[in-house]
Amino acid sequence: MSSTVNLSALRLKYREKKEVFLEENIRVKEPITLFREWLDQALQTEELLEPNAASLATVDRNGKPSNRFVLLKDVTDDGFRFFTNYGSHKAQDIACNPNVAMTIYWLPLRRQIRIEGVAEKIPQEDSLAYFHQRPRASQIGALASEQSTRIPSRTHLDEIEQEIKAKLGPDGEVPLPNWGGYLIRPHTVEFWQGQTDRLHDRIQFRRGPDIEREVDGKLVHKGELGWVYERLAP
C-alpha cells in the first residue's frame, strides 16, 4: 500500500538568491575553520535541538554499507571525533575498512556538510578522560551494553545495569569498557546550502598527495593548509 501523502509533491522553501553561499564569503579557505563557523551558527539556532547529530556511513569487508546516527563530540585541527563501543557494528566495519563518510544536516539553516575520510582510534587516555566526563548513568549504560550483540530482552539489560550499580555502590568509579573515540581525518569536505530554485550552492574542499597540481584558478582553486576547493553543480 502506498503512502496517503503524495511525497513527490512535498516542497520545502530554502534560501533566496540574496542569500547565496559564495567563495568570497569563506573567510579562511580550509574546511575546519569553515565547519566551526557554521557549527557556531547551528549552536545558536534554537530550532536545532541536537546540532551535533551526524549520520555515519561505514562499509564492511564484503563492501556492504551501513548507516546510523552518532553524536559528533569534538572538532580538532586534525578532524572530527565521535565515540562508540569498540565491539559495535560500526567499529567492526572500521577495523576492516577505515574509509567512512559523515553527513550533518541542519534543516532550519538549509545547510548540509558532507565529510569523507579515514577513521582511526584516538589515544586511550583521551577516551578515558571523556568517558569520565559523561553523566554517571551514561557511563554505567556503556558498561552494561555490549553494543550490537544479541540480547534476550530489555529486562536483561536492566538486570545487568542493576548488578553494576550494586557492585560499584553510589561512588565507585565506573571502569572503562571496550569503548572509546575515533578521529575521522578528512580528505574531502563539502558544504551545501539549499536554494529555493534548487540551484543549490555546493563548495567542496579536497586534500591529498599532489592535489595542488590540479589547481587551475578556474575550476580548482588553491586553499590553505594543503587544501584545494571547487564549486560543484547541484
UniProtKB/TrEMBL annotation:
GO molecular function: FMN binding; pyridoxamine phosphate oxidase activity
PROSITE patterns assigned: PYRIDOX_OXIDASE
Domain Pyridoxamine 5'-phosphate oxidase N-terminal: 46-155
Gene Ontology BP term (one): pyridoxine biosynthetic process
Pathway involvement of the protein, from the record: Cofactor metabolism; pyridoxal 5'-phosphate salvage; pyridoxal 5'-phosphate from pyridoxamine 5'-phosphate: step 1/1; Cofactor metabolism; pyridoxal 5'-phosphate salvage; pyridoxal 5'-phosphate from pyridoxine 5'-phosphate: step 1/1
Entries under Pfam families matching the protein: PNP_phzG_C (PF10590), PNPOx_N (PF01243)
Entry keywords, A to Z: Flavoprotein, FMN, Oxidoreductase, Pyridoxine biosynthesis
Entry cofactors: FMN
Residues in Pyridoxine 5'-phosphate oxidase dimerisation C-terminal domain copies: 179-234
Cited SUPFAM superfamilies: FMN-binding split barrel
Enzyme nomenclature, EC number: 1.4.3.5
HAMAP family on file: PdxH
Functional summary from the UniProt entry: Catalyzes the oxidation of either pyridoxine 5'-phosphate (PNP) or pyridoxamine 5'-phosphate (PMP) into pyridoxal 5'-phosphate (PLP).
Family: Belongs to the pyridoxamine 5'-phosphate oxidase family.
Subunit structure: Homodimer.
Protein name: pyridoxal 5'-phosphate synthase
The species this protein was found in: Ceratitis capitata (Mediterranean fruit fly)
Lineage, top ranks: Eukaryota, Metazoa, Ecdysozoa, Arthropoda, Hexapoda
